[in-house]
């Protein structure tokens, strides 16, 4: 932390700040400059509240220097983490594609789509049983029945399944039926849920909140790791900006930004960012090219009948074509898309 | 909903869209224009998924016209709702000031600050027992002990108390000890929590999420009302923008925007928006002048020692001065600040 | 400037950064911390490019500490600047209200509206002769004829007039006819225009760009002051955010933020921020309450016929009522609205 | 345009809106719905001001339906436009890479870097002679001398050159020396400059403003086309958001969004979006993969000595490696990078 003094701050004011720093067991390092003095604070092992110093006389501002994350950082662990979900590894050379419907609507619908995405080349299945919906009058998901359908279809196809745990009430249930637990964008700062999924030991797919900085995303993962679970895959799914040509703005630069700071893998969800199927293929290409460790794609065989987000779902045929593109593209960034396990 | 056809869409394409609309029991109203045709959809009582029509041949785009909220809207109930918390009414002529520390740190600290804010003119007490913190290494609140302190201090001072219910696990506990339940900005779209607090019947203080539109804020309130609880006070606390001179950007225009659409009262939290105490008085003035039904202000008698957000807490003396300003200002907008109840 | 080294940076890497700093005539101040070393750079009188150090081995990041503005800052001049426009002073105790149509449409329209706003209590006239329009097919203003109309009406009513200089081509013309030159939001970083208006010596109304930080707004003013012109009034007119209930988000906190850092006056333009007349009165109240030195308000006597931005124009009667409110409100923040000069 | 009436608007209110629409020579198409009536307006060939109807009694809101651009749209011209700059074509199968220093600093520096980028595979040279700088104290470019250097180096290497015309004063000069005129992000809504460059007949590189929607970018191009110049290449260079891990957020989805609506080519500038060289290669890959028609990349052989933006400049060796990647990547999206012309 750096305390910057006002131009013309008196020697006494500077000494007072130094005393306040030292009275908290920290070390003050004054740096007299041409125009003003700054005081570096060292010796802090934890989080120092900036409010401690901001209101002292003569202080212009307080600048945070240390980053508050630890376990998630490459400074803590330099090698890439590879998260295991069944036989899959996310975060290594393999590029993992997760696909399926937005919502589980019935056993037959889930079976048809799961077979289609497997045939198209997906390695993992997605599908919502508990759905976070902006309006209370929208379809809220099949709940437990949806989880049971996902488990059955996962077993039938051999594709491991990821689904969202909407709250701590249903977390145990979701852990029982799913292979990987999704924490949705709206829950990225639901700290109770983060701690609880940390204790579950299950692999976690943690989506970036629509207004979260990269630092906040990593701190959300830190909550999970702090409970002893490092099986975390991050997911960029678009941020909220003024731009109105897509539902959210896919922030592809977050992917190399995370990879520089953290050892955790990160994938992209172009479907939710785009909000319409037309932009899913170009955004998928962008995400793979920028270095994402995988993709999560929504597919529906009757999108015009879908109970949620039909406009962003690819038709199975479009998904197959996209997978062909992805295979060629992966090779140019030294990745490969593994074949799905046969059952 | 309005389906806009591309320029040059053929008669058959238009007829096909009309057929698709009608096959869903809706009415299609084609509007042939100079350059292109649009088709209005009527007869829909619930939510229509735009995906139903977006991908039909010849369609340029689909525009939402209906607003998805019902119970919260003035079209549903034209009179202002006045929310009762103890003897207080929020949303009428009275302008309610809620004040207290960010976090409950000890009985003595809470007693001292509560007495100070009551002396300064606050009608209600705030304080965090369960704290949502970006970093797992920051102070997380005293939990149950904090709730017990708040109850005791509320009883001693006669100030009703509002505190945050961080998750559904602690909701019953918070309902037992507090007079009003706060749903924090990070939980504005925690739908399980919204439904549960809706069923509790307790007055609710619902904070706008940092990236929530006014529509989304009202839909979050709709979740609570849909469970039969209309005792909801909304709270503008700043949105996330590129501007970096305050922690968040206090969106004062959200206050008249909400008041036009909805009958629910709305207050402002200038402390969290500002992030530093210097800007709390001017933002408080702006919020009252724009028409807020109340203010929530953080106060600490030793902000440099505060375990959270010390930099934004007013000193009790600053709070008293602010209340003087607020009383004068309230009169110019036909409001009054009531005297706190004596106990 | 502060160079932060990676955790585990070697002694040699640190020494190399120190050498690079010193080779540029600057002083390096290493601050060894518990986890990493930071190096403060002092001795810099101008702007140091961060790129000089960011790419050196072992460097984690470079943090700017000094602020790049000088002449506009309170550290340079501590007293408030009062900008003189005719007999008016903007930035002192008086709160100045500028009003008039968005565009000058005809002599008669301008006369009618100018008389109405003077009768309502405005001290200054506004009106666009050259209009920046998003679409080339929208009304672009009357140009020179508009300037001549403004001059005539200003002389008739005794209200000084401000109008926008859209580019350097028309600047001399605008300087000839107007009492104050407006630099629009889209031109806030048109540096040639800023320098040129700086040399004109005329009072300037500089609007904040829709995506400008407070620092960038102040640096734009610095361009003008650097040419010897300190007759600058800043103007907050809303920033672009995701919020969609107003055209732009009026960032009222920018007003105290500017007033803390700079001696220049700052007013607000609630009409452009709101985009609709309904929200102009509450936003005007918010701006005055937060401490703005004045307001700029659009008024039209036939807004439904206006050639631009009719939806945000107040009717003369609404403007009069607003002025009544403003007079009462000004008193509560120790301001007064002066009477317009009689002619 | 669609006028949406309030729920419960009376028959008379609806008829009054219809009369107002018809009195302006437009056609009113009432659509009575279950809950409220909407009225479609047709017959408008130009821009209708929404303010005409927003304030009528019983009106809830007015929704724009028509898009205001014409010449730039695919509805106007369905084939891709290929912009010719010397022997190069931008917007066809070829993917064009423009590279060079941020600022022209000297003849020797420009020669060295131009040769290096040509050797690395660039087809076109960039370099700033007139620089828009946030601070008046930063290096402002060599001006005319810089233009002369660019011309000489362009002739020596055979690489056509693009450089920014900062204002209308220097436009003729820039047109004389450069092969393509850049309009910078800060000037995207400098309408005088847009019209003037439209009349110049020169190929234009139009950068998206940091806060511009895709619609506004296309309308800026419409200003240029409206003057008879359709030699326009658009450029995505990052938008301003809350995200702080890159200088701006490269909005890759703007590229397919533009390509759907418009026939004009669009390239990406990952250097300015990233703000640091580390993220330039991944963002370049993302831009090519998403479908950009080209890239503009900053290169410097001594970035630590650069007079502007050194931190984002690639070393020539890094640029060569990037070009290798780009060649492989281009093939996977059915593009090719042409060889630079020999001289």
Give the arrangement of secondary structure elements.
Four copies of one chain form a homotetramer.
Chain A: E1 2-5, H1 11-22, E2 27-32, E3 37-42, H2 51-54, E4 59-63, E5 83-85, E6 88-90, E7 96-100, H3 107-120, E8 124-126, H4 144-157, E9 161-164, H5 168-177, E10 180-183, H6 191-200, E11 204-207, H7 214-225, E12 232-236, H8 254-261, E13 266-268, H9 270-274, H10 280-290, E14 294-298, H11 316-332
Parallel strand pairs in A: 7-8, 7-14, 8-9, 9-10, 10-11, 11-12, 12-13
Antiparallel strand pairs in A: 1-3, 1-4, 2-3, 5-6
Helix pairs in contact in A: 3-4, 3-11, 5-6, 6-7, 10-11
Précis, in short:
The structure is a homotetramer. Chain A is an alpha/beta fold and about 350 residues long. The first copy, chain A, is built from 11 helices and 14 strands.
Major β-sheet annotation of chain A? 8 strands, parallel
Tally of discrete structural domains of chain A? 2
Oligomer: homotetramer
Shape of chain A: elongated
Main structural class of chain A: alpha/beta
- Tell me the CATH topology of the largest domain in chain A: TIM Barrel
For the termini of chain A, the CA-CA separation is: 55 Å
CA radius of gyration of chain A: 23 Å
Tell me the β content of chain A: 15-25%
CATH superfamily membership of the largest domain in chain A: Aldolase class I
Strand tally of chain A is 14
The overall average pLDDT of chain A, rounded, is 91
- What are the secondary-structure elements of chain A, in order, as H or E? EHEEHEEEEHEHEHEHEHEHEHHEH
| Second-tier CATH architecture of the largest domain in chain A | Alpha-Beta Barrel
Low-pLDDT ranges of chain A: none
Strand order of the largest sheet of chain A: 13-12-11-10-9-8-7-14
CATH classification, class level of the largest domain in chain A: Alpha Beta
């Amino acid at each position: 932390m750096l305390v910057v003094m006002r131009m013309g701050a008196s020697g006494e004011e500077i000494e007072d700040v130094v005393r306040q720093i030292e009275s908290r067991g920290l070390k003050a390092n004054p740096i007299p400059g041409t125009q003003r003095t700054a005081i570096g604070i060292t010796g802090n092992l934890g989080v120092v509240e900036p409010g401690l110093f901001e209101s002292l006389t003569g202080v212009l501002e307080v600048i945070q220097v240390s980053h508050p994350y630890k376990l998630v950082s490459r400074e803590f662990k330099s090698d890439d983490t590879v998260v295991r979900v069944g036989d899959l590894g996310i975060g290594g050379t393999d590029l993992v594609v997760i696909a399926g419907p937005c919502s589980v609507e019935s056993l037959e619908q889930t079976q048809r789509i799961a077979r289609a995405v497997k045939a198209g080349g997906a390695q993992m299945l997605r599908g919502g049983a508990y759905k976070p919906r902006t309006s209370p009058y929208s379809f809220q998901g099949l709940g437990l029945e949806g989880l049971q359908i996902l488990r059955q279809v996962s077993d039938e196809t051999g594709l491991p399944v990821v689904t969202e745990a909407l709250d701590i009430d249903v977390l145990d249930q979701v852990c029982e039926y799913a292979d990987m637990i999704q924490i949705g964008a709206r829950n990225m700062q639901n700290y109770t849920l983060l701690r609880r999924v940390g204790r579950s030991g299950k692999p976690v797919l943690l989506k970036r909140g629509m207004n979260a900085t990269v630092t906040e995303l990593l701190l959300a993962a830190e909550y999970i790791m702090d409970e002893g679970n490092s099986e975390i895959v991050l997911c960029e799914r678009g941020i909220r900006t003024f731009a109105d040509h897509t539902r959210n703005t896919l922030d592809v630069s977050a992917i190399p930004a995370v990879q520089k700071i953290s050892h955790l893998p990160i994938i992209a969800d172009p479907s939710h960012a785009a909000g319409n199927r037309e932009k899913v293929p170009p955004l998928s290409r962008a995400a793979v090219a920028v270095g994402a460790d995988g993709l999560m794609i929504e597919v529906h065989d009757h999108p015009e009948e879908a109970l949620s987000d039909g406009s962003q779902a690819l038709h199975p045929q479009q998904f197959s074509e996209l997978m062909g593109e992805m295979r060629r593209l992966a090779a140019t960034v030294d990745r490969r898309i593994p074949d799905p396990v046969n059952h």
